[in-house]
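Structure ticket #2291
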Amino acid sequence: MRTGGARAALGVGAALGLALLTVTGCGGSASRTASAPTPTPVPTPASGRPAPPEDLCARLVAHWSREVLDTDTYGDYQSMGLSNGQYEILIGVVDAARAARKREGPAAADELIDRRARRGCVEWYRDGGPGDGPWQ
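Resolution: structure written out below.
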């Protein structure tokens, strides 16, 4: 019993020592771990306050609407970082943009995307926005 406890203590000590070396970067530069990249900051309005959620929603929906406009499928809303509600707005925006592009050309479709994404997101957040689940 006593030997097993000593082995376990040695194993824990070795693991802690290895973790400490990795974290502190002891040794030459080759032994240091790479630092995590600095995340890109989310742009804020000139006031320094975070953008309202309906603004972020409109930007996301407009971006992805342009991305999927030329495809036959809408893709997976989760891989786009959209909620289910934002995805429903996107489907309506893209359908309308496809029709506008066919009738009036690409510039009209581009304007429509911004206008419809904004309107859809403002309405969605006016009604409460996302629910309790992440898919809402």
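Closing remark: Residues 1-42 have pLDDT under 50 and may be disordered.
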